Each structure stands twice: as structure tokens, then as C-alpha cells.
Amino acid sequence: MKHYPYNYFTNGLYIASEIKFPELLEKEGTPTVFIYYGNTPENLENPSFKRVFHQANPDEYLLDIKHAARYWLKNKNEVVVEPYENVQEDAVRIYILSSIMGVLLHKHELLPLHSCCIKVKDYSVLIAGNSGAGKSTISLGLYRKGYEILNDDISSVFLNDQNEPSVYPGYMHLKLWSESLEKYGYETTDFRQLRNEIEKYSFPINRCNKIEHLPLKAVFILNPAGNQLNYESIVGLKAFEALNKNTFRRNLVKGIGKEASHFKLSTSLASKIKVFQVNRPDITKPKDFSDFMENLITTI
Amino acid sequence: MNKKIFWLASYPKSGNTWTRAFLTHLLQGDDKNIDINNLIGGPIASARNLVEDYIGMESTDFTINELEELRPESFRYFAEKIKKDEWFIKTHDAYTFLPSGHPLIPEDISLGALYLVRNPLDVSVSFAHHNGISIEKMIPLMAKSSYAFCDTSKGVRNQLQQRLLTWGEHYESWTNQSEIPVLVVRYEDMKAEPLTTFKKIVAFFKLNKSEEQIQNALDACAFDKLKKAEEKDGFKEKNKKSERFFRKGKTGSWKEELNKEQINTLLKDHKAVMLKLNYINTLGQPIF
Amino acid sequence: MIEKNQILYRNSEILVNDIDGETVMMSIENGTYYGMNPTGNYIWNLLQEEKSIEDLLVKLANTYNLSDDQCQNEVLPFIQTMIDEKILLKKD
Questions:
Q1: CATH superfamily of A111-299
Q2: DSSP label at B218?
Q3: How close A108 gets to chain C, by Cα (Å)?
Q4: Are chains C and B in touch, 3+ Cβ pairs below 8 Å?
């Protein structure tokens, strides 16, 4: 019987792991996902999806990153990790927390939205957008105003027993580029750098970890363009389209055979959550944007 | 896969967008107004999403070098999806080699490259405006071999690193290679003799178009029309630091904007290639 | 041109759901999403059991008070599109 030294609860999954993840909440429970070191295949048999770094079939997912590790999702419960030689430990973790987590969530019929999650009183909101749109940066701004950050990068959304959209808490850090840290007056030397040649750092988040999940009220999609700082409501099919665009690893859903459950969940959510596009001109000062977003998330 | 890509290559501010507008009208337009945000030749070769489409995941956890190594395959992936016999990709990249030794621009998908070039005296003014910096700061950058666009590792940019080399090295990198046939066209000739010059371009692309069609396309893309279009719709390729993309478009406006010292520096920095291209005479005096 | 006595039935590879009163469909096969207007929705609902095109046209004409012309020039092409996109399938 394998012994797993680390036990976590993140994004709705209880994980037993041989790898330590400082970004995750330590919690005992009945694990549904096991992460361990082992041998991985070079290729999958009969892949229904294949690209240079990853491939998938309805049962398995294989991710091969030469500066980190080869990761094999044997099934929806087991992640086998085979690190390459002389790689940075942080690099091995990065991909588990991104691609692997995205696939796991789809396989467990949760919806991973590419977004940060902010707790506002008794509900939560998501701040979504493309890489570089400024999700983590604005989350840092709101954190500094006293709001709890429930997730960074991948927020795990589902329908609870009352069929209401809800979100599970996840990562306890914000991944920030040096540009963003410097905007708020931080020194990058105070933080753990995620990869040696990339100026991205892990900014630890403190929060109260008693809540299992929280109702989700709205999704704000950042659009770093436009002439004016404003927002607009998106409804119906357009809302559905927007959520799809911001779904993490949307392109893998078919290859892993989860089209039907993904469709059902994402269409149901599109009717029940408010979706907004937030237009943010490039010249907007960080403080003005923080104030604007604070007002928005507290008054919807 | 057959060769099917023509590269629209140039140092920045040298007539690339004008050429794209012309091609768009020639191949797709009739009497419609062109959408300047949807010109043929896009996305630019350095667009991050070209690589992200190819790898099927985000690119923000990869280093600048790792992403660069992926670019030639991303061009092949893009080219594979093109149904036509020939298509175009705009680029400001100099013709360079990756750390692994392969050329950035894959020869096996390339039919040729149209290399557009413009008097560096005018380029310095236009480029300074585009970057939102002084001409004083721009001039040494044009003479720096290591000058590159979007080469920061401190944040995410929409485009990947593009190595420009110096203005002269940029020209020589494209014209000294023998993998891909190149047609060099000067911006000044496009302005002075548009019909003759664009006919040469159309012939190089082996496009079957009449003189009348070419003239119509030229008329539709007159500079003031492009300027108006930008005023109305905005131009997504405009640098955020500059006020407008389509500014003056003239030949020789450097005479009003550069001082004696700046002119001398530019002439000194780029003498050899300016002579080759007849931008200066054998006495070193500017012709345009 | 399609025969009016052609029997049509639903493609079971199509997923359907409702978003705020708008119907969205997805083809698992080609991954395409379709926003369905009320007419399309109505036709889809009519095809809980297979029917001929003639049957569909008659029901639509009655419900929406359509002329023969409208059936021929508007509804029939729309049904053809649903067949082209493999939302509806032809029974041999």
C-alpha cells in the first residue's frame, strides 16, 4: 500500500501526493486523485488528440515537457510523474497545477474556468481573461484591499445540490509577473521564482480555509483594450460563448471524451451566472482599476 | 505539403501595411471598404497565438528561447491549414537562425519573400513616433544588432520576440540568404511609380491580375483612405504608445524632422546598405 | 431538391440545452455549436418521433399561419440547412 506524505484539498478534489505543493491547502479526506512518481509511456495508444507536447484518448492524457517531466494521467484518478534529469522542482509542479489540473477537472465533471476567484461577503466572483489580461494583477489589488482570494488561474465551477452555480477554493498563491509585482511596490527577491528564465513569481495568499465551497454570482471577463474603463453585460448565447472561450483546456474536452458533460454543465451555468465584459484601457492606473473592480464586485 | 507562403518582410515602418491593404483589395475587395483590422498577411508571424494554436496550450510558462524554437513548426502548422495554393504572412523578423541552428523561416513552406525597404532617414522618424520615443533614442536602436521587439521576460506581450538586428543587417539577412527567392522593393518607388512597382510585385506573386485591377486596388488604398479608416475603426497593430499608425506616409519628411547631427549619425551607421539601395550617391549625399 | 415525403429524424449525436430561453445545440461529431431560433426549436421538438417533411410543413403552416410560398421559400431551405449540418438525418 503506497504511502502518500502529502494530502490536499483543492478545486473540489481530495489529493494524495508524493510531491509537495506549497500552493495547496493541506487537508485530510478521502482522496480521489493520487499523484506519484513512476514510469510513463512515450506515447499513448490510439490517441484521439495529438500535439507536440500532449496527447489524449478517452481514458488517458499524456503531457511531455522536456524542461520538467512527463506526466501521465492513467485514468481520472492517477497522475504518474516522471521528471527529467536536472530539472527545477518548481518547473515540475507548474504543469501539474495547470494542464494536469485542467484535464482532471474536466474528467471529474467540474468546469475549470481560466480565472481568479474573489470572495465577496457570502458569495464569490470570477475574474477571467486571456494570459496577460491582468487577472492575477487585479486580484493582487483586491487582496491588498482586504478581499480573500479563493483561486488563481483555474477556478473550479459546479452546480451544487440546489442546482446553483458554486465554486471550490483552490490555489493559495497568485502567479505574478515581475511587472505586476513592481506595480504594487514589491521586490521580486522576496518571492519564489517559478522558472529560472521567466520572471514569474509565487505570491502567497493568506486566507481562512473553513469554507468548502461558495455560491458564484458573476464572471468578469477582462478585455485589456478600449478607450474607456467600463463594463457591459453579456447574456444568452453570447454568455455561453464567452464562458467557452475562457474554459481552461477547452480544446482537450473532445479528446478526453467529456463533450456531453461539459456541454450540459457549461450551458446550465450560462443561464444562471451573470457574465460581464470589463474593458480596461492600457493607460488605466492600477489604483483606479482596483477601485473600479471593487465597486463592481460588491454591487452586482 | 507544397510550398505556399509568400513572406511580406520588412523592417518596421517601411510600407508593409500599405502592401497588405493593396493585396487585400486586389484579392478580396471590390467596391467594399477595407477592414484595416483584417488585412491579408495576418496574423503577423510573431503573434503569440500562432505558437499557442500549434502547441494547443498556453505559452506563458515557456522561455523566450523555447518559444522561438517552436516558431518554424508553428508556421508549418499554419500553412497546412491554408486551402489556397498561395498565402501571405507579414513579418518584421530579420532572417535569423534559432539557437538550435535552424532558420526561423522554414524554406519548405516558402514560395518567396517580398522584402520592402525604406530610407532609414524616414524610418527613424516614423519608428520613433510608433514607439513613443524621441528620435534621439531611436537612432542608436536602429544601429544595434541586438535590438528586438517584445523581448521582455517580465510580462506577457501579444507578440513573441522579433529580432530586428540593425536596419542594414535586417536587409542583408533577407537578401544574403539563398533558401527563399526575394524581391526587394523600395517604399520610395511604391510612392513615386505605384503602378509600375506594384505590377512587379503582382508578377512576383504570380497573380493573374490586369493593369486595371491593380490600379483599382491602388486607388482604394490611397494613404488618406487608410488614415480615415484608422480614425474610424482604430488599428489594432498601432503601438499603444503612439497616437496613430497612419501618420504622414511621405517620402523625405526626414528633412523637416532630423537635425544635422542626427542625419550624419544615420548616414554613418547605414552607409554601405544605403549605397547599395541608392539612398545615397557615391559622395554619401542623400538622394531622396 | 428534397422530396416532401422524405422522413427525417433527430441525430442522437446532437446535444441540446436552453440558455435563458435561447436554445443551443452542439454536434459532438464536429464540435460545432448552433444557436437555434424558435422555428428550429419547434421543428426539433416536433421530431420527438420521426416525421416526413410534408408533416412538418403542415404543422408549421398551421401554427405560424404560413402561406405555401413561405413554406417553400423560407422553411424548406431552413430544414435543408438542418439536414446539411446533420442536425436532422434522412431515413432511408
A1: P-loop containing nucleotide triphosphate hydrolases (3.40.50.300)
A2: H
A3: 19
A4: no
